[in-house]
Design goal:
- It is a single chain.
- The protein has nine helices and seven strands, in the order ααββαββαβααβααβα.
- By secondary structure, the chain is α/β, with parallel strands linked by helices.
- A seven-stranded mixed sheet has the order 3-2-1-4-5-7-6, with helices on both faces.
- The longest helix is centred in the first third of the chain and has 15 residues.
Length: 285
């Protein structure tokens, strides 16, 4: 264990920085299709918000694709290479180097699924927001990579090694927003399917987008295990010889609390019945 890690770390922080630096030095845009989908989804959600933003923070910034007209945007990335390329700051999401109430909006695409202390990171994001500030995030969530997961089960039998990251489902994401103190939290999921000719292409994409295994205590895969996994992956192919892999993208929205925001109704204060609200006809005797 290095000095940069703690006993509770799930992910290897130095390895994460190295993987992102390797992706920055490689052909990252050729593998960035998931981030592109996330960025598009975040900007669509932001466009529905009828207010302006002056100071924004982009967390996880391999490029400057997240642009907000009229806003000053600070960028932070866990990798040195990506941070340097966008003129940003290198840092981890659960160790944000910004003062409280520095921004009126925070955006994050594609990195929150690799954070050791995600509840802590979300709390810090809420703290760097000004009152009524907006947080929009997107990351790979529960239900992602089922074809790869199945192939590894076949390849490694009853004692599989830890090779895939823990995944957060949409319900847990909403709970985490509430625990972090966000108001009006919303979480939803969109799925994105990609058809691969062979397992190697999927692994190339995961490496190229800096999404390969960075778990602490991870072990290498033998050549025989990889061959069995590739055969199992190919065995799940359709008639065209390609195997479908699914990526589940969780989108989250939350607001820094402010007195101007709508409050939930007091329990027992309703004046209309649920049946009336749903226009359900009364039961007949």
């Amino acid at each position: 264990m290095t000095a940069a890690q703690t006993p509770a770390d799930i992910f290897d922080r130095p390895s994460r920085r190295r993987r992102r630096d390797r992706a920055a030095a490689g052909d990252y845009p050729a593998h960035a299709f998931l981030r592109d989908v996330m960025v598009e989804g975040l900007l669509e959600r932001l466009d529905a918000v009828k207010r302006g933003f002056d100071d924004m923070l982009d967390i996880g910034a391999p490029d400057a694709g997240l642009r907000v007209p009229g806003a000053r945007i600070a960028r932070l990335d866990p990798g040195f290479g990506f941070a340097r390329a966008v003129g940003g700051v290198q840092g981890d999401e659960d160790r944000l180097p910004f003062a409280d109430a520095s921004f009126d909006g925070v955006l994050s695409a594609g990195v929150l699924d690799q954070v050791n202390d995600l509840p802590g990171a979300l709390t810090l994001i809420r703290r760097v927001l000004r009152p009524d500030g907006l947080f929009l995030g997107a990351f790979l969530g529960g239900g992602s990579l089922p074809a790869l997961r199945a192939a590894l089960r076949v390849a490694e039998g009853d004692r599989p090694a830890a090779r895939l990251h823990p995944q957060i489902d949409v319900r847990s994401a909403g709970d985490l927003l509430m625990r972090a103190g966000f108001a009006l939290p919303v979480a939803d999921v969109e799925t994105f399917d990609v058809r691969y000719a062979h397992l190697g292409r999927l692994l190339d994409d995961l490496r190229g987008m800096a999404a390969s295994n960075i778990l602490t205590g991870r072990s290498g895969m033998t050549r025989d295990t990889l061959a069995r996994a590739a055969a199992a992956f190919a065995g799940a192919a359709g008639p065209d010889g390609r195997t479908t892999e699914r990526f589940a993208i969780v989108f989250v929205t939350g607001w820094a609390p402010d007195a101007s925001q709508p409050k939930p109704a007091r329990r027992g204060s309703a004046t209309a019945s649920l049946a009336a609200a749903l226009q359900v006809p009364p039961a007949k005797g």
